[in-house]
Amino acid sequence: MREKQAQGPLSNAKNKRETLDWDRLLASYKELDSLPGDLMASEGELERILSVYNRALTQASTGNIDMAKIALEKLTATWPQFTEASSLYGVLLAKEGRYREAEEHFAKVLLASPDTSLAQSVERCRLAAREERIRKEARDSRRRQGENLLMPVRAHMARSGILQRAGHEGGGGRVQMASRREQEEILRMEEGVAAQARRSHGKVSRLIQGLTLAIILASLLFFVFYFAVRPAILKNEDRRERLDWLEGVLEDRSGEAAVSDILDLYRKTFSP
Length: 272
Hints:
There is one protein chain. This protein is mainly alpha-helical. It has 9 helices and 2 strands; from the N terminus they run αααααααββαα.
């Protein structure tokens, strides 16, 4: 099995960007008469593993891909070092167009059995699945961009009573009169998008207005405090310091009759 796979379609992949024929690759897998020696299991377990693998291969070859994947998924989860089964499961994923999952699975196969004779073939499968994934994602991205560009055109055509239905069954690529229901659906969709945009814009505008008002009020309070309240506070503090100084001087000279009279008058006037 290992030698046949090494000489199969994988050996023709000369570079990383070459696309593999997954159907042909699946056909290159053959039933096994015995299992690799690196599988450490009892004789009964080895017979069961061999039976499950051969049955899954038969199911995959006859088009029963789902049943084959279920069996192989369980088998590879328990025996990841069984490279033939693991690589076959990855091929089935790629055959269904699930290239990202196939790429990740082939990488796991290499981690589980990096020194196997099939390692080079599995690596080529991984690279091929990666290239297919990149191409598919690029196609999907271009399709979404095209649909986004066509949305305003479709809305305009709906308003005009015309709808391009090239993508629908029976449309035949022709431009036909839209039904009343189709016009209303597209117009509702457009109105919903516009209403949502207006609501979002209104929320942002109210938030900006609130922040602006708060900043203006804070600025006014700061200017009032800095240019009106603060000077008055500083002036009162300065006056208080002067009076305290004067009171201290008078107390020092309180022995003099004239000074004593002035001190008494001061205290009567300014005492709380």
